[in-house]
């Protein structure tokens, strides 16, 4: 059981027996007033969206999803294909259901495919993934300000801010929960 | 190259934050205010229905320095200010940190209207520009601020009234969803004259006991400060605290011990007004930061 205080982006809950994922979350508390937990969420089966505001003390059932260890194979049209390494069964997940996970998919990446009533409706990637920088501006030598960042494109096409000393071809660690640069892979 | 990129990347924000704090202290010193410090760990906070203190070795971390500062006011300190950390349980979001920095100041011989003027002057003194840009909207500080009563705000931005919203329990939702996003756009907004039940430590408006002399300052939709003309009647304050404590009990919230020393001191409290201003949020607006995380050295999660 979750309470309103557990609500955050990415949490999966059950409403009317269907799984929903929180896509936007905002904690609000008007001066001297009560805490309000404002959410936007998406039905993981139908893709329809919902806006709801909750108060302290309200409780939620977690979404009852089966997760199965698989690895990423390839993308075809607007579907992503994954394979179960023990049964060799393959499943397809729609681009819409992938959410931010699609930013981190490289060949053979181990993921958890989420199933509801045997239908694949989402994918969870590891908290940290290593991706290679394919495009970024060179570091201007002598700039030691340390407070700057620059855009970089990684091998999946995802663009994020990185420190100025990161160069093309380097492997970096990205925190998939925030989508942000975490550190560089040494060596 | 520093290893903690997130922390070293905040250098510019933290340097500007430090300069803003310097300007605030200079502003108050020039006006004859004494900077004071009061204990963070206290036997009991004011019993407010919706503010939860964090227990600390049998006592509590203060949620605001209000009680101690008003005892100083009652003891004859006429102009005092404090910049300190405060703690509120369970408050975390892009505009909230459970541990945050508050600026509070109290002044004898004035009321909430006098504090509105002074707050406006403080904004001009620390902004460093006549016009701010925050989240894509401009906030002009060179003109007088907007002053909007809560009743006017409900009439303008919602389809209900404060009384009806309080009766059906939707007051806070209407505030957050309909009203707040429209406040402090183009120029600062002082939202004032709250329903009496929304100001547990505020004086009621002479001639209209349905309203509390309380205001909130908004910049770019963001709530920055809360102020009121101080309630100086110990018996009425005791009754209000009992009502707030009853509401806490009804919501199964932690009960607090009585604050008798504070109530005893109230009989000596001069006519006065006080204000609590969230400094992290003010820095957010001045730096056009999207999240409170950008303007502090460490968030709780980074410890």
From TrEMBL, chain A:
NCBIfam families: efp (TIGR00038), PRK00529.1 (NF001810). One of its GO terms (cellular component) is cytosol. Its main location: cytoplasm. This is Elongation factor P. One of its GO terms (molecular function) is translation elongation factor activity. PROSITE patterns: EFP. Belongs to the elongation factor P family. It comes from Geomonas silvestris. The keyword Transcription does not apply. Residues 67-121 form the Translation elongation factor P/YeiP central domain. Keywords: Cytoplasm, Elongation factor, Protein biosynthesis. The keyword ATP-binding does not apply.
TrEMBL record, chain B:
Keywords: ATP-binding, Ligase, Nucleotide-binding. This is EF-P lysine aminoacylase GenX. Pfam families: tRNA-synt_2. Gene3D superfamilies: Bira Bifunctional Protein, Domain 2 (3.30.930.10). The keyword Ligase applies. NCBIfam families: genX (TIGR00462). The keyword Hydrolase does not apply. GO terms for cellular component: cytosol. InterPro entries: Aa-tRNA-synt_II (IPR004364), aa-tRNA-synth_II (IPR006195), aa-tRNA-synth_II/BPL/LPL (IPR045864), EpmA (IPR004525). GO terms for biological process: lysyl-tRNA aminoacylation. Residues 20-300 form the Aminoacyl-transfer RNA synthetases class-II family profile domain. GO terms for molecular function: ATP binding; lysine-tRNA ligase activity; tRNA binding. SUPFAM superfamilies: Class II aaRS and biotin synthetases (SSF55681).
């Amino acid at each position: 059981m979750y309470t309103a205080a557990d609500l955050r982006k990415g949490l999966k809950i059950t409403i009317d027996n269907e799984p929903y994922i929180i896509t936007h979350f905002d904690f609000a508390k008007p001066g001297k007033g009560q805490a309000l937990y404002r959410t936007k969420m998406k039905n993981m089966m139908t893709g329809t969206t919902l806006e709801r505001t909750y108060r302290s003390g309200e409780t939620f059932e977690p979404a009852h999803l089966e997760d199965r260890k698989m690895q990423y194979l390839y993308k075809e049209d607007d579907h992503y294909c994954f394979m179960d390494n023990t049964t060799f069964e393959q499943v397809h997940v729609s681009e819409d259901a992938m959410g931010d996970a699609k930013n981190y998919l490289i060949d053979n990446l181990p993921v958890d495919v989420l199933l509801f009533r045997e239908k694949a409706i989402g994918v969870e990637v590891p908290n940290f993934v290593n991706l290679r920088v394919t495009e970024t501006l060179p570091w201007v030598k002598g700039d030691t300000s340390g407070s700057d960042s620059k855009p970089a494109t990684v091998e999946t096409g995802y663009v994020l801010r990185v420190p100025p000393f990161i160069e093309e071809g380097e492997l970096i660690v990205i925190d998939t929960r925030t989508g942000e640069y975490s550190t560089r892979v040494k060596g | 190259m520093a290893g903690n990129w997130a922390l070293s990347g905040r250098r510019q924000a933290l340097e500007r934050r430090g300069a803003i704090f310097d300007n605030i202290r200079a502003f108050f010193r020039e006006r004859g205010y004494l900077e004071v410090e009061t204990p963070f760990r206290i036997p009991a906070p004011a019993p407010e229905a919706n503010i939860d203190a964090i227990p600390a070795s049998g006592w509590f971390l203060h949620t605001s320095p209000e009680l101690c500062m008003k005892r100083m006011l009652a003891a004859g300190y006429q102009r005092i200010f404090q910049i300190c950390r405060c703690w509120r349980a369970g408050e975390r979001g892009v505009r909230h940190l459970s541990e945050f920095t508050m600026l509070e100041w109290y002044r004898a011989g004035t009321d909430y209207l006098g504090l509105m003027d002074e707050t406006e002057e403080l904004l001009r003194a620390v902004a460093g520009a006549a016009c701010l840009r925050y989240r894509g909207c401009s906030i002009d500080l060179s003109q007088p601020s907007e002053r909007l009563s809560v009743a006017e705000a409900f009439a303008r931005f919602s389809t209900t009234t404060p009384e009806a919203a309080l009766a059906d329990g939707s007051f806070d939702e209407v505030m957050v969803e309909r009203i707040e996003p429209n406040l402090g756009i183009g120029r600062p907004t002082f939202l004032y004259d709250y329903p009496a039940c929304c100001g547990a430590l505020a004086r009621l408006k002479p001639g209209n006991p349905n309203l509390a002399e309380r205001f909130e300052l908004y910049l770019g939709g963001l709530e920055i400060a809360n102020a009121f003309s101080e309630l100086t009647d110990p018996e009425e304050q005791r009754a209000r605290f009992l009502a707030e404590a009853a509401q806490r009990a009804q919501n199964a919230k932690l009960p607090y011990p009585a604050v008798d020393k504070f109530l005893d001191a109230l009989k000596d409290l001069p006519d006065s007004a006080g204000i609590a201003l969230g400094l992290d949020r003010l820095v957010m607006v001045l730096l056009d930061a999207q999240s409170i995380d950008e303007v502090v050295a460490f968030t709780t999660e980074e410890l």
